[in-house]
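Changelog entry

Holo records now carry the ligand SMILES as an explicit input line rather than a separate metadata file. Below, a converted record for adenosine-5'-triphosphate, shown in the new format.
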Amino acid sequence: MNFSVNDLHVSYGGITALSGVSCEVQEGEVVCLLGANGAGKSTLLKSISGLVKPKSGTITFDNTDITNNPPYKIVSMGITHSPEGRKVFATLSVEENLVMGSYVLKKYDHEQLEFVYNIFPRLKERRGQMAGTLSGGEQQMLAIGRALMSKPKLLLLDEPSLGLSPLVSKELFALIKMLNSEYKLSILIVEQNAGAALKLSHRGYVLDVGKIVMSGSSKELLASPTLKESYLGKAHH
Ligand SMILES: Nc1ncnc2c1ncn2[C@@H]1O[C@H](COP(=O)(O)OP(=O)(O)OP(=O)(O)O)[C@@H](O)[C@H]1O
Ligand SMILES: [Mg+2]
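Structure line, unchanged by the conversion:
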C-alpha cells in the first residue's frame, strides 16, 4: 500500500475548503488529522473517497492516480471511508448493513462477515436488530465493521469517538489500534480528541483553515507547546 495527496485544492462554490494540502500514509501507519471545526478535515476524507471533486491536485494510491475516480472504484481498489456521524442504514438490520459494505466485492463474502463478527462479537449478538436502535457506541462499531467488509488496505475514519462516553471511546481507540497492529491495516483518522488520537497514531497533521500548519511524529506533536495550547488542553466533547 502507498498513499499520498499532493497539493490538493477544494472549494464549494466560492468557498475554499482546502488550499494546497499534501500528506501521506505509509504502509502499516496510523496517521491522525487534527484541526478545529471547519478546518477541512472531512473535506479531505471526502476528496480521497471520491465524494467531493477537487479543483486541482492529485491523490495517488498504490502508484495509481485516483483523483476524480468514482467512489465505488476507490472502494474496490482498497480505500474505505467510515463517515462522520456514522451513517448506518437505520431501518436495516445489523447484518444487512454489513452485507451492504461488501457490495463492491461483487459477491457476498461470508468469511469477511465472520471476520467482522469475530472483531465485534456485540454485532454478532445483535445481527438481527435494526441498526437505528443500537447505542451510539454500537452504531460506531457497525460503521467500522461495515467499512471492513470491503477488505480495505487503507481505512479512513472521520471522528469515530464523536458523542461516545470516555469509556466507550477508550475501547474504540484500543480496537482501532488493534486493527492496525494485528491486521496491518493502514489508517487515516480524523479526531477532535487530539490527545487520544495521537496516542494511537504514529504520525499526525494539523489542518487549519484548509492548510496543513504542522506535522510530525505523534511524540513530537504531543510535546509541541503550540499544539498543547490550541488542541490538547481543552475538552472537545
Ligand atoms: N457541501 C458543502 N457546501 C458548502 N460548504 C461546505 C460544504 N461542506 C463543507 N463546507 C465548508 O467547508 C469548510 C470545511 O468543512 P469540513 O466539513 O471539511 O470541516 P471539518 O474540519 O471536518 O469540521 P468539523 O470538525 O466541524 O467536522 C467549512 O467552512 C464548511 O462550512
Ligand atoms: Mg468534519
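Spot-checked after migration. The chain has one domain: 28-53+69-232. Residues 41-42, 84 surround magnesium ion (ligand 2) (CB under 6 Å).
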